[in-house]
Protein: UPF0295 protein D1970_12565
Organism: Mesobacillus zeae
Amino acid sequence: MAKYSSKINKIRTFALSLIFIGFIVMYGGIFFRNSPVVMMIFMLIGLLCIIASTGVYFWIGMLSTKTIQVVCPNCGKATKMLGRVDMCMYCNEPLTLDQNLEGKEFDEKYNRKRSK
Ligand SMILES: [Zn+2]
């Protein structure tokens, strides 16, 4: 079983690390105080990272509207799923819509029954 967290958590981690990278890059710019142009470039890159992370957070917000609430069979908590296969946000239990397909409005697209 692959060890990874749910997609939304993963994107959230990515957005958070972007903020950190942004601050580290901006902090790095301080070492180039003597050349304002280089410092400006560092500050700009750092700022871009932070702006990008804001964009990613916005994207998470958009994605959250597309998630499906399911009750995790393992820990019993209501978790959000993105796509056909995702992980529980609390216990990383792998969840599949293929198993829990019970007349959810979603299935048409993803539920490809093996009919060869
Ligand atoms: Zn769970």
In short: The mean pLDDT is 80. The CA atoms of residues 29 and 42 lie 5 Å apart. The chain has two domains: 7-64, 68-110.
